[in-house]
Amino acid sequence: MSVVTNLLYLLVVLGLGVAGRSVGLLTDRRADLLTTVAFYVALPALVFGSTAGQDLGEVLEPRLVVGYWTVLFAVVAVGWVVHRRESSSAVRSVAVVQSYHGNLGFLGLPIVAAAFGSGVVTAKASLLLGVGALTQVPLTLGVFAFLTDAETDLRAEVRGFLTNPVLLSLGAGLAVAALGVPVPEPVSAGLGVLAELALPVALLAIGASLSFDRDAVDRSTVGSVVAVKMLVMPAVALLVFWALAADPSTTRAGVVMLAMPTAVSTFVYASELGGDADLASTNVFVTTVASVASVLVVLQFVG
Questions:
Q1: Helix axes 265-272, 89-98, angle to 10 degrees
Q2: Name one GO cellular component term (predicted).
Q3: C-alpha count within 13 angstroms, C-beta hemisphere, residue 138
Q4: Each residue's pLDDT tens digit, 115-130
Q5: Number of helices and strands (H, E) in the chain?
Q6: What fold is seen in the domain 3-302?
Q7: How far is CA 183 from CA 52, 165, 175, in A?
Q8: How do residues 267-278 score in pLDDT, each as one tens digit?
Q9: Which residues are bridge partners to 262 per DSSP?
Q10: Which of 2, 32, 108, 194 is the residue whose CA sits 20 to 30 A from 39?
Q11: Which letter, b or e, does each residue of 204-213 get, where b requires 16 or more Cβ atoms within 10 Å of its Cβ?
């Protein structure tokens, strides 16, 4: 499919998720089941399949990780400055976090795979997904703890890292690639089928979880979050990877992943760690809808 067709497909499936929730077909239980399938089955299959057969010399590109960290912390600083005068710590914490914390797993990697196939670009995006998981979550927990005085269970968070299926599948894929172990054709074919489910299942789950109450939040705050996440972050990513003289596959993987909308998980963190849950939900909704247009623009630049 073409880039435009892929993004129209994204919008349609996302809309089906929203509609399914509206008519009562996608209940909370069914949406949770979709999320579980995406997180524990489809996404790990995509990560493993995209890395196991690759040349590690191509995938393990230092500029990819350096570029990602440079963009991430630059946007954290931008968000901190832009949102420094928010009315409360609950609002400010959510605004800062959702200005940088992107949906790398449920949207980023599947969209890269749909746009560029199962080659080196997707393998690099898989690596970036692992780096992002190890970076974004501790950073987000730290921001909430600092701004809201929230207490987090560090032991539970460490346990979550160690059992994260994305990190486990990434480690397994890189190990297979390093050892040169061939993946049997039936296994590869089965993983390919599961990987194809990653994007539609994730989109349905996201659509079923989105909600938007425009009367419950400050529109200017939402607008500033959308501007930083969906405009500033991709622009900074383009500049950083250009300045690093990154090769095309690194630039494509890095910029597209960093152009993703705010992660749905930030709503969970906001709810549990003293943030403004209404604002968090609205930002997830608006950035996800806006990403249909912004990702198309980004793909035109790097594709």
A1: 160
A2: plasma membrane
A3: 11
A4: 888 788 998 998 888 8
A5: 17, 0
A6: Na+/H+ antiporter like fold (1.20.1530)
A7: 8, 19, 12
A8: 878 877 888 888
A9: 102
A10: 2
A11: bbbbbbbebe
Alpha carbon 283 to chain centroid distance?
A: 14
Inter-residue long-range contacts of 73-78, CB under 8 Å, 24+ positions, other chains counted: 74/236, 74/240, 75/99, 75/100, 75/228, 75/229, 75/232, 75/233, 75/236, 76/100, 76/139, 78/228, 78/232, 78/236
DSSP state of 85: T
Report DSSP letters for 95-124, one per residue: HHHHTT-B-IIIIIHHHHHHHHTTSHHHHH
What is d(CA 34, CA 179) in angstroms, rounded to the nearest whole number?
34
Distance of alpha carbon 269 from alpha carbon 290, whole angstroms: 22
Q: Per-domain residue ranges for the chain? A: 3-302
3-class state of residue 194 by DSSP = helix
pLDDT by residue (tens digit) across 128-160? 888 888 788 888 888 888 888 766 655 666 666
Instruction: Provide the b/e sequence for 140-171 (b: ≥16 CB within 10 Å).
Output: bbebbeebbebeeeeeeeeeeeeebbbbebbe
Alpha-carbon distances, residue 266 vs 77, 116, 122 (angstroms):
18, 28, 24
CB 120 within 8 A of CB 11: no
